[in-house]
Every structure is written in C-alpha cells, then in structure tokens.
C-alpha cells in the first residue's frame, strides 16, 4: 500500500513537471518574441525548400528525395523524416515551427528529468540535470530550427530509461529491451555524433547490472558472466546496426565530408592532439573542471567508505563511460573545435556521471540526510546556477529575435521591390559572408514570392559573375553579371566596392538598410 502511494505521488510530480517545462518553454518563446520573429536564414531555408517540394512532388516523394540527397554528405534519415513531416504540418507558418521547437525543448528537458529520477536522483538535482544543459553556448538549439541534437537526446534518454527498467524487471519481460533497441536505432539515424555513442550505451547496461547487484553476494566474475549471458544477443544486434550505419558513412557519405567534424587523412596525429587540446580548453572547459572535481570526490569517498573489488569495478566502469563520451566527441570535432550545439553529446555524458552516478553514490555511502551529502548537492546546485547566470542565454535569444525580425522585413520589402522592377522577371544578386545565407534568401524569394531570378555572388570570388544557387527543377546553372541585375542585397562593405570596380556607382542607387543587410535598387 505504501509503495502504491509513493508511485502515485511520483507519477503526479512527473506529469506536473512535464506540463511545467513545456509551459515555461512556450511562455519564454512568446515573451521574448521568438514565436513571431520570423526567419533566421541559417537552416530556415530548408523550410521554404521542403514546402515547395511537398507542393510539387507530394509528401513521400519529397521525403525520399531529401533522405537520398542527405546521404551524399551526411547520414540522418530519421531527422529528415521528422523534418519533412514538420513541413507538411506547418508549411511556411514560422510561428508553428517555433512553437513546435519550444515544445520539443521542454519535452527534452523533461525526459532528461525522468531518466535522472529512474537513476534515483533527488527531484531538485534531476530538474537541474534536465534543464542546465540548455544553457551555455549550446543554447542555440533553443531558438534555431535546424539542430538535430534535441531529437537525438530524446531518443537517447528514452532508450536509457528502457534499459534501467529492463534491469529492474529482472527478465520478466522483453518489452523494455525492445523499446531500448528501437530508441537506439532512431538515435543512430538522427545524428552522427550520437551514432558513435552506441558502444558505450551498450556498456551502460553493464554499469546498471553492477549497481543492481552491488548489495548481492555475487562476485565480479559472476556479474560479468550474467551480463554477457543476458545481453550478448542485444549487443550483437546493436553492433550490427551500428556497423551498417558506419559502413554507409565510410563507403558512401565519407568521414570527412562534413567540414566541422569527422576524420581527415590529411591530418596528422599531432594535428588531432592539438585539436583535442583546443576542444578541452574551449567551451568544454567548465564541464571538464566539474568532471575532474567530481571524479576526485567520488574516488575519495570510495577510498574512505568502500574498498571491495565489486565496488571498485563499478567506479572504474563509470569513469570509462564518461571518458568515452569526452574522448570520442573531442576526436570527432578536433578539426575545427567543438562549440555551440555540438557540445551536447559530450556534456550529456558528463552530466550523467555528475548527476546520475555521483549523487546516488553519495546517498549510498554517507546517507541521504548527511550534512556532507547536502554540502555536495549545494555545491552542484551553485555551479549549475552559475552556469545559467553566466551563459548569456537571454542575450543570445534576443539577438536571434532581432536578426530574424530584420530578415523577415527585408524579404517582404524585396518582394515589393521585385513587383516594382519587372515582377517575376526581376533579377537579384545576393552577396553575404556565408553561402548558406545566399542560398536562404534565394530559396525564400523563389518559394515564398515566386521570384525566379535570384543569383549568388561569393565574397571571395574574383569575378563579378553571380550564379543561380537555388534550382528546384534541375535547370542548367546560369550566370548573371552585376551590370545585369536590378536589385543587390549585401552585407558589410563588400558589394559596394565590387560594384564600383564594375563601373556601377552605388551611391547613386536607392538604398535601404535592414539590420546588417543593405539593399541597392537600380
């Protein structure tokens, strides 16, 4: 009766936490104007392109085209299934896109909280585990519409919850293990940086078995034999899927096709060591300091309170677990560094060790009500609050809102100017510091406003010939010189100088400014 009452109370708190986190996420997005800010250009151009594809080719054909195209550079089929489905539901209604993103972030934080509770972490620490990871430079996942990390994290936490329940069930049902396999496969097919975590996630089952058997009289050898007997088929199954996915990446997509991550044959061991050092001394540093501190505390407590082999094996296994996260992700991003949303897999592994392995250890060794346990939990809480306060989270969100508002106003104004300068035959040249922004403006103008002649001019190009970057019907790539364009869109001072070199006096043209963008009209 007592257990039923406890379970009912836990269920009520869990449901209340879900409502609270999603409501807070949506409320914040509404309060700062994120829901209504408009388009950012990075990632957002996919919205216009996907919508146009669905209108022309239908839902499933568009889904097939994007998944196949993605495998030439990446391997994220599940992400694209969800992305195309979102486009089918939301169209180009940007408010709906941001609303879904806010709900996704709230749900991701909640599923992290649920996982921490399953690992016997107190409510406050479990809440911090679910929430604090979204603060810091990685907070871009809160407002940008493209990152796949929150979706991959959801699959990961759901899979780990299934694994915890499977260990607790003691072979009474294979339902939880089947759920684990489904979630891991979905995680592997959502983001490549999570794919490489599969070996250590399988090892996590061994850690759970060690924790569960810690109070029993079974020896280390018996626990290892039991683990292999129980999970060998599951390990083989997961590793086969893992090998197939890696095979597609190695043989088809390429391990160096993504500029910011992967392995490159031209890099030496010294290059990679230097890259890893830059990763560790960059945005990851505060989390590594926290990890080293808690490793020291855990080792110290273990030496004082427990010294048996089974307990030592469990502690070493936990350290292997977290070091795999740190080293694998550091190596993956050694080429260009690891910041913003790319920190998420590594931070998640560190947080699992700090929150979900360390706190239950303190409670077990020195008691839940011991002043030392309270002191350690307060230390962790103070660190978490410090990370939130110093993260510039609010400032980054406001900057995004400001940028999007200017971008959207500029797109509307460009459509008006196009109508005044030839309508569908109006020719535009876009030149920004980033090719993706050129592509985004081109995609939005063609899909949202039916302006077909939008060309891209690279800021590093030595010619004045712009190219047709965005082609939806397989046309032959066209070129357009500056002298032939009706409207120019530029950032900084690049395009005015190029126009002057081509004999176009930009000071005599009509000019309009939208944030960092300048529009010149002939």
How much helix is in the residues? 55-70%
Based on CA inertia axes, which overall geometry fits?
A: elongated
| SSE topology string | HHHHHHHHHHHHHHHHHHEHEEEEHEE
Largest sheet: 5 strands, mixed
Average pLDDT works out at 85
Given as residue ranges, the uncertain stretches (5+ residues, pLDDT < 50) are none
Strand content: 5-15%
Q: How does the helix and strand content classify structurally?
A: mainly alpha
Q: What's the Cα radius of gyration?
A: 26 Å
In DSSP terms (H or I, runs of 4 or more residues), the helix count works out at: 20
* Widest sheet: strand ordering: 2-1-5-7-6
Distance between the termini: 80 Å
DSSP strand count: 7
Condensed summary:
66% of the residues lie in helices and 6% in strands.
Describe the structure.
The chain has 522 residues and is mainly α. It is 66% helix and 6% strand. The protein has helices at 2-31, 45-57, 59-70, 77-90, 94-118, 123-131, 140-143, 149-169, 175-188, 192-195, 198-212, 220-253, 269-280, 285-305, 309-332, 344-366, 371-389, 393-420, 435-449, 494-501, and strands at 427-431, 453-456, 465-467, 479-481, 487-491, 510-514, 517-521. The protein has a five-stranded mixed beta sheet, sandwiched between helices. Strands 3-4 form a two-stranded antiparallel ribbon. A hairpin with a 2-residue loop joins strand 6 (510-514) and strand 7 (517-521). Helix 14 runs antiparallel to helix 15 (309-332). The longest helix has 34 residues, at 220-253.
């Amino acid at each position: 009766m007592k257990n039923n009452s406890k379970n009912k109370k836990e269920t009520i708190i869990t449901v209340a936490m879900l409502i609270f986190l999603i409501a807070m996420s949506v409320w914040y997005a509404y309060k700062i104007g994120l829901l209504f800010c408009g388009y950012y250009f990075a990632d957002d151009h996919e919205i216009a392109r996907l919508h146009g594809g669905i209108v022309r080719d239908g839902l499933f054909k568009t889904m097939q085209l994007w998944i196949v195209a993605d495998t030439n550079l990446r391997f994220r089929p599940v992400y694209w299934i969800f992305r195309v489905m979102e486009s089918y539901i939301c169209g180009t209604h940007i408010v709906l896109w941001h609303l879904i993103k806010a709900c996704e972030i709230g749900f991701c934080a909640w599923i992290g909280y649920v996982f921490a509770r399953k690992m016997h972490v107190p409510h406050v620490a479990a809440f911090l585990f679910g929430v604090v990871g979204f603060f810091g430079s990685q907070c871009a996942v809160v407002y940008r519409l493209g990152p796949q990390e929150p979706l991959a994290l959801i699959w990961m936490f759901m899979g780990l919850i299934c694994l915890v329940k499977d260990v607790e069930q003691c072979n009474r049902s294979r339902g939880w293990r089947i759920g684990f396999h489904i979630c891991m496969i979905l995680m592997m097919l959502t983001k490549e940086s999570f794919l490489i975590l599969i070996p250590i996630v399988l090892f996590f089952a061994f850690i759970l078995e060690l924790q569960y058997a810690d109070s029993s009289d079974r020896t280390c050898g018996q626990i290892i034999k039991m683990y292999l007997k129980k999970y060998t088929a599951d390990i083989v199954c997961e590793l086969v899927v893992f090998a197939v996915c890696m095979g597609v990446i190695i043989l088809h997509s390429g391990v160096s096709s993504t500029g910011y991550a992967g392995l490159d044959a031209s890099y030496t061991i010294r290059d990679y060591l230097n890259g890893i050092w830059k990763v560790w001394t960059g945005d990851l540093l505060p989390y590594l300091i926290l990890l080293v501190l808690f490793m020291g505390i855990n080792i110290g407590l273990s030496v004082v309170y427990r010294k048996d082999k089974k307990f030592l094996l469990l502690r070493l296994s936990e350290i292997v677990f977290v070091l795999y996260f740190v080293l694998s992700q550091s190596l993956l991003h050694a080429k260009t560094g690891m910041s913003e949303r790319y920190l998420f897999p590594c931070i998640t592994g560190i947080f699992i060790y700090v929150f979900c392995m360390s706190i239950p250890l303190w409670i077990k060794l020195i008691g839940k009500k011991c002043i030392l346990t309270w002191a350690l939990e307060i230390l962790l809480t103070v660190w978490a609050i410090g990370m939130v306060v110093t993260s510039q989270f609010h400032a980054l969100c406001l900057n995004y809102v400001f940028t999007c508002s200017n971008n959207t106003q500029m797109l509307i104004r460009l459509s008006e100017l196009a109508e005044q300068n030839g309508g569908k035959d109006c020719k535009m040249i876009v030149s920004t510091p980033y090719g993706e922004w050129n592509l985004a403006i081109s995609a939005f103008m063609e899909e949202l406003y039916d302006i077909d002649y939008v060309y891209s001019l690279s800021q590093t190009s030595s010619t004045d010939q712009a190219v047709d970057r965005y082609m939806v019907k397989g046309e032959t790539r066209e070129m357009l010189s500056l002298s032939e364009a009706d409207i120019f869109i530029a950032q900084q001072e690049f395009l005015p100088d190029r126009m002057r070199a081509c004999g176009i006096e930009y000071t005599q043209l009509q000019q309009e400014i939208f944030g960092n963008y300048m529009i010149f009209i002939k």
